[in-house]
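WARN no homologs supplied; continuing
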Amino acid sequence: MIRSALLLVLLLLPGPHFSHAAAAPSSTRSKSPSWMASVDTRWGGHLKLRGTASHTSYGSLYGPVGAGTFVDGALEGRITNRTFFHDDVYGEAHYEILISGGDTQNAQTDLGRRFPGLSSELGFLTPQTEDDRRFLDLTHPLRERDDHRIVHRLDRLFLAWTPGPVVIRVGRQAVTWGNGLLFNPMDLVNPFAPTDIEREYKMGDDMAAIRFPLAKAAEAQVIYVPRRSPETGDATWDQSSLAAKVHLAPGPVELDLLAACHYEDTVIGVGATGYAGGAAWRMDATWTFLDRDEERNGYLSLVANVDYSWVWGEKNLYGFLEFFYSGLGESEPAEALQNGPLVDSLQRGERFTLGRAYLAGHLQVEIHPLVNLLLTVIHRLNEPSGLIQPRAVWDVSRNVQLTLGASIPYGGSGTEFDGWPIPGTPWLTPAPEQAFLWMAYYF
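OK structure emitted
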């Protein structure tokens, strides 16, 4: 499928135009279609090199295959193209190649051979880029070994039509809804994890999307995301999503209204944003009606945050606080694997926490126009468990950026962020202390 999609991209893109003194006579020279004269194509992309050192305890899941300090590396290349075929028609394609490997992948491979059932059950602990559920399979492994993997894929491939104020897009794309800064219950399709530091590109999904105005201060968005069953490979309604969101801006407070059929569940939501003095506040609440669960009819998800920027000591500062509540969470981490709807949500990559209530804080200090220090802390409220993420970002040049940071869990053995017990085993989930160095080059 990915080979066919790449061929389609090459056919759609306009070819290069050359000028040569020995060109063929005009009588034999073929003429380009008239629409080609107005085609405008734009290229871009990046290369990102990542190095990570992780310390994993021998009491964790990796204990049976050898724990300690794991050293890993990854290279991500992305080539982006946007081609304007007409004033109101354009297409976009993003090609990715992902190379990753090191001690962690080697341990995961060894673990999968020894305990295949356990490895598949806890697969949601490792980020996935496969297209098992997506309508189109645009991901293909080029090389898979015990300690490294090379995959290439198309992360964007859509055609857009913009007649007047209406925007219609069909194909692989990304849509982000909701007002959460780290947690985002209203973002139903491929949301970022709250622990994600990089948020430059959200993973795309196959969908049809339309955005259109309703009135002077209102607009609506409707998306349909067809998906396939990972077991059968068939596209079915109970694996798909149909959602609509209305944004209202009648005054100083803006509102969002959400209604969705998401997999087998029904989701409704409301959001609001506004200002209090120099600070901005946001809030989203959703109620999910569970279709298959016999113990509960549904659950509430809520996020509320406030952010503020100021100057102190001639330095620019920015910070926010965010509260998140999940009615689907469990008080004990080990109980989460017995919660069917929660496990389903974790495996689909739309939920990333096990508990009910969390408080997060973030601070950014610009110590130089090209150097920023950042600190993010996520704390689970009903247990002393959390994650600390300090980092420094240096814009070395117009095209090069360096990020140095760490990810430090705390809370002790048996807690969500520092390793929770895996039922039926003597091990804990891996919660390594990590240090990382990233370099990004943009072109």
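The two ends are 28 Å apart (CA to CA).
OK
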